[in-house]
Automatic annotation (TrEMBL), chain A:
<dbReference type="GO" id="GO:1904047">
    <property type="term" value="F:S-adenosyl-L-methionine binding"/>
</dbReference>
<feature type="binding site">
    <location>
        <position position="46"/>
    </location>
    <ligand>
        <name>[4Fe-4S] cluster</name>
    </ligand>
</feature>
<comment type="pathway">
    <text>Cofactor biosynthesis; pyrroloquinoline quinone biosynthesis.</text>
</comment>
<comment type="similarity">
    <text>Belongs to the radical SAM superfamily. PqqE family.</text>
</comment>
<dbReference type="GO" id="GO:0009975">
    <property type="term" value="F:cyclase activity"/>
</dbReference>
<dbReference type="GO" id="GO:0051539">
    <property type="term" value="F:4 iron, 4 sulfur cluster binding"/>
</dbReference>
<dbReference type="InterPro" id="IPR007197">
    <property type="entry name" value="rSAM"/>
</dbReference>
<feature type="binding site">
    <location>
        <position position="53"/>
    </location>
    <ligand>
        <name>[4Fe-4S] cluster</name>
    </ligand>
</feature>
<dbReference type="GO" id="GO:0005506">
    <property type="term" value="F:iron ion binding"/>
</dbReference>
Automatic annotation (TrEMBL), chain B:
<dbReference type="GO" id="GO:0048038">
    <property type="term" value="F:quinone binding"/>
</dbReference>
<comment type="similarity">
    <text>Belongs to the PqqD family.</text>
</comment>
<dbReference type="InterPro" id="IPR008792">
    <property type="entry name" value="PQQD"/>
</dbReference>
<dbReference type="InterPro" id="IPR041881">
    <property type="entry name" value="PqqD_sf"/>
</dbReference>
<keyword id="KW-0884">PQQ biosynthesis</keyword>
<comment type="pathway">
    <text>Cofactor biosynthesis; pyrroloquinoline quinone biosynthesis.</text>
</comment>
<comment type="subunit">
    <text>Monomer. Interacts with PqqE.</text>
</comment>
<comment type="function">
    <text>Functions as a PqqA binding protein and presents PqqA to PqqE, in the pyrroloquinoline quinone (PQQ) biosynthetic pathway.</text>
</comment>
<dbReference type="InterPro" id="IPR022479">
    <property type="entry name" value="PqqD_bac"/>
</dbReference>
Length: 406, 102
């Protein structure tokens, strides 16, 4: 999700239509202006247990969450700084009882609100109240195109049916809908049907986001990693659908970087155009950044302003720009194209966030790590470790046997 | 239900939908369109045209106004304006005022 926020856009306007995506008009020489959009992970609580959850493995407990007044203060501060949009996310943002109040406050201070939701907790009245409070866009995650696969991945019965219902209400309330589909080995075969589902739901946009492997997803890599053949087929399907559905459904495609030769420009470069705020109020360069041990992240509860944290804090400056880079990044002609890839992935796979992201073919660890992933993709380890506050729960065996047999 | 697949013509009376907000960004001193998970930077001409999109004016009236203001050939302006608005409509950032009569 946040990859598209951070500038990996595939919907860049052409030069003839009088429009440019503002992020891309910034020059490399510019100092780090405040981001246009900020991701607010207002809670880690969630009724779903997706095995690729982008939240850190160490989840923030409900008791540590910022209060309503603290979030309101954050929203006011962000608007004053020049942030234009906020994304209410989680966990499940509607698990907070004050979600309508927070959206209303965002509207009152002039922020444009997006809701990034699993949808399963929403009633029609709640959604309608959110629209009245000024909510401008709803993004709903889907785990498949039918309940058998989707509810199993979500680890929640009846989730898929509920999502379809909320998607319909969203359009009835005349709010634009984005369908977010996180793809992996065990649901990629449903992609053509997911695309059709998005069309049938009258969605404006579909995000086909391949799992990015850190945190929970890394723990589940053997059960999720697609095969090279699946990825080639996926790219074909997406390209065909993008051409066929032009003007009806915009499709953003996030490729799995394990099978790329070059790493992704993660977050648009560390500390360049993105930050998020965790449930407990930490200001982070990336929603997975807390997985990097040894980095201290400042909180909105500290004496520092958000602007100070963004400009001056040690964590934001640690991997900013190109000065921190080792070889092969340091002398690489692409160093300002991808900024060395993903710091969290470098940390998770090499133990040092300051190394070149092993997704890059120039990383000395590339071959070894991706050979292993390729072997995992061909394996038959399909059981999930579900995401929860207890550190994860392994999927029951009997259930898995049933799926293997079908 | 959907307001997509609009064909912009001289009789259209376009307006921005609720989810596309034209706003002056005081921090960066530029006009922006806020759209779902997007911030677009329309150029000066696009901003001028978008200010005319109030759901009341027809495209023909907008073109007349611009042709007079810039003393430019009406045909050329019409082509440019319709192309720009069509592109916005295709992206879902422009809708049409509901017709009171068919």
């Amino acid at each position: 999700m946040s990859d598209t926020l951070a500038g990996n856009k595939t919907t860049t306007a052409g030069p003839t239509d009088g429009l440019a995506v503002l992020e891309q008009t910034r020059s490399a020489a510019e100092t780090y202006g405040i981001p246009l959009a900020v991701l607010l992970e207002i809670t880690h609580r969630c009724p779903l247990q997706c095995p690729y959850c982008s939240n850190p493995v160490e989840l923030d407990r409900g008791s540590t969450e910022l209060t309503t007044d603290e979030w309101k203060k954050v929203l006011s501060e962000l608007a004053e700084l020049g942030v234009l949009q906020v994304h209410f996310s989680g966990g499940e943002p509607t698990a907070r009882k004050d979600i309508v109040e927070l959206v209303q406050h965002a509207t009152d201070v002039g922020l444009y609100s997006n809701l990034i939701t699993s949808a399963v907790l929403l009633t029609k009245d709640k959604l309608s109240a959110l629209a009245d409070a000024g909510l401008s866009h709803v993004q709903i995650s889907f785990q498949g195109n039918e309940p058998l696969v989707a509810d199993r991945v979500a680890g929640l019965k009846d989730a898929h049916r509920k999502k379809l219902e909320v998607a319909k209400w969203t359009r009835e309330l005349d709010m634009p809908l984005t369908v977010n589909a996180v793809m992996h080995r065990q649901n990629l075969h449903q992609l053509p049907d997911i695309i059709q589902m998005a069309v049938d739901l009258d969605a404006d946009r579909l995000e086909v986001a391949n799992v990015q492997y850190y945190g929970w997803a890394l723990k589940n890599r053997a059960a999720l990693m697609p095969t090279v053949e699946q990825i080639e087929e996926t790219s074909r399907i997406v390209e065909e659908a993008q051409a066929r559905l032009k003007g009806t459904l915009a499709i953003d495609y996030v490729v799995p970087d394990y099978y790329a030769l070059r790493p992704k420009k993660c977050m648009g470069g560390w500390g360049r155009q993105f930050f998020n705020i965790s449930p407990a109020g930490k200001v982070l360069p990336c929603h997975a950044a807390e997985s990097i041990t040894g980095l201290e992240f400042e909180s909105v509860r500290s004496n520092h302003s958000i602007a100070w944290i963004w400009q001056n804090s040690e964590a934001f400056n640690r991997y900013r720009g190109t000065g921190w880079m080792p070889e092969p990044c340091k002398s690489c002609e692409f160093r300002e194209v991808d900024y060395g890839g993903c710091r969290c992935q470098a940390f998770a796979l090499t133990g040092d966030a300051g190394n070149t992201d092993p997704a890059c073919a120039l990383s000395p660890r590339h071959e070894e790590i991706f050979k292993q992933a390729e072997q995992e993709s061909a394996g038959s380890q399909n059981r999930f470790l579900y995401r929860n506050f207890a550190g994860g729960t392994l999927e029951a065996d009997e259930r898995q046997d049933k799926h293997d047999g079908s | 239900m959907a307001s997509r697949n609009i064909n912009v013509s001289e009789t259209s009376r376009p307006k921005l939908p609720r989810h596309a907000k034209l706003k002056f960004d005081e921090t960066r001193q530029v006009w922006v369109i806020l759209a779902p998970e997007r911030v677009l930077a329309p150029d000066e001409i696009a901003v001028e045209v978008l200010h005319l999109c109030d759901g009341v004016r027809s495209v023909a009236q907008m073109v007349d106004q611009l042709a007079e203001k810039y003393a430019a050939p009406r045909e050329a302006i019409a082509t440019d304006v319709i192309a720009m608005l069509q592109d916005l409509a295709d992206k879902g950032f422009l809708t049409e005022a509901r017709e009171s009569t068919a």
